[in-house]
Every structure is written in structure tokens, then in C-alpha cells.
Design a protein that fits this description.
There is one protein chain. The protein has about 180 residues and is α+β, with helices and mostly antiparallel strands. The strands form two sheets. Strands 1-3-2 form a three-stranded mixed sheet. The relative contact order is 0.10. The chain is built from four helices and six strands. The radius of gyration is 23 Å and the shape is elongated.
């Protein structure tokens, strides 16, 4: 790059970081740049922001090979966190296309993630986790075993796993 263009490019990146603004076109360019710089392979698919993502920083789609990124991660944690998430998703992308171990538990994935310095986890966005949760408490009428469940159980259909006795609902708690 020309000296002035390089300075302008860096200034633009800093300014956008300050404003916390990025669109899908800029994300696509960033993903392509990170892929060629850190992985030395090109990224030939689509990278977009998906505002419906809630509990994850991003995801790699196996069928289309596209990458979706949670824009709230960029809004709350900035460019460094976004780059870590992109590196993580690119590890899935490149390993999957090479028919190597692309899942989190695979050695190939762990090695490549460490090599490029990608994020293992993303930050928790304040207010995105469910704060209220219902807890259903059931008890066996025969042996007295207590079962705590997040979802309701059809007591006509299910029985106690220990003694096969009938179970009945005791209480429902609403945590807030």
C-alpha cells in the first residue's frame, strides 16, 4: 500500500472503532483480509452480520460455507473481540473445506485456533441471558425421589426412574 493510503486506512479503522459502525460489506472485506493474512488461504464465501444471534459470537454454516457474526459482540466488545470471533469461525471454515477436524473437540481445530490466536469464547453481552427461569418440582409417590425440571413433565406418561412409581407435581418456582 502507498504510505498515505496505509495511514488513511489505519485512521479509518480507528475512527470506525470509535463510532462502533460496520456494515456487511466491511465485514466481508475484514474476513477476507484476516483469512489471507493469518491463514494464507482465501475466503470465497459470504460473511454477514446476523442480529438474531443471541448466545454465540458467530457461526459457520456447514452447507453454504457462509459465516454469520453477532453484531452485538462488536458493539459491546469492539474490534479486537470481533477479530477473535472471525478467526474462530475461519478455523471451522478452512478445516471443513480441507476435510480435516473442524469441530471444537478436534485436535486440528485446537491447533489451528492456537496458531492464529482466535477466541475460544466470546464475551457475555449484558442483558442477553435469560434472567427469569421456571423450575418445576416433581416427587415420586412411592419412594419420594424429587425431580427438578426446567420443562413440565406429562405425569400420566412418565414414571419414576428408580422405582417405576407415579410422579406428581409438587411446586412451580418462577426465578426472577
Amino acid at each position: 500500500m502507498n504510505g498515505w493510503l496505509s495511514v488513511l486506512w489505519v485512521f479509518e479503522k480507528i475512527f470506525k472503532e470509535f463510532l462502533k459502525v460496520m456494515n456487511d460489506v466491511e465485514l466481508q472485506k475484514l474476513v477476507e483480509d484476516i483469512s489471507s493474512e493469518f491463514f494464507e488461504w482465501s475466503f470465497k464465501h459470504k460473511a454477514i452480520f446476523n442480529p438474531r444471534l443471541r448466545t454465540t459470537g458467530g457461526r459457520y454454516l456447514l452447507r453454504s460455507h457462509d459465516i454469520e457474526i453477532n453484531p452485538k459482540q462488536f458493539d459491546h466488545f469492539g474490534l479486537d473481540a470481533l477479530i477473535g470471533i472471525i478467526k474462530h469461525e475461519l478455523c471451522h471454515y478452512h478445516l471443513h473445506l480441507q476435510n480435516r477436524g473442524y469441530r471444537h473437540q478436534d485436535k486440528d481445530f485446537k491447533d489451528l485456533l492456537a496458531k492464529v490466536g482466535g477466541s475460544k469464547y466470546c464475551g457475555t453481552i449484558p442483558g442477553m441471558r435469560r434472567t427469569s427461569q421456571t423450575l418445576h418440582v416433581y416427587r415420586c409417590t412411592e419412594c419420594g425421589t424429587v425431580f427438578n425440571r426446567k420443562r413440565t413433565i406429562d405425569t400420566k406418561r412418565y414414571v419414576c426412574g428408580k422405582c417405576k412409581g407415579k410422579i406428581r407435581k409438587v411446586k412451580t418456582f418462577k426465578n426472577s
